[in-house]
Amino acid sequence: SSGINAEYGEIDRHFSLRCKATGVIPHLEVSQPLIRFAPTALGDVRQASFYISNNASKGDDASRKSDNMRKSFHIVVPDGVDLTVSPSVGTLNPGQRLRVQLTFGPTLKKEDIEQKALETAKAEILKEIERKKREEAEAERVTESVATTKKGKSKKPVSKPHTPKSPQNVPATPSPLENIVITDEARIAAMIKLKTNFERRFEKVLIPCFTAAGECTHDKMLDYKLSDTVYLQVHLPAVKPELVLLSQNGSSIVDFGNVCIGQTRKLELTLKSISENPVSLTTSAFPHDGTFQKVNATRDLEPLGLHQMILEFTPRAKAKYYEVVEVRTQRSTLHLHLHGSGVEPSLIVSPDSGTLDLGHVMVGEILHGTFTLKNSSEIELQYGISLLSEKSDVVQAFT
Question: Are 82 and 226 in contact (CB under 8 A)?
Answer without folding.
Answer: no
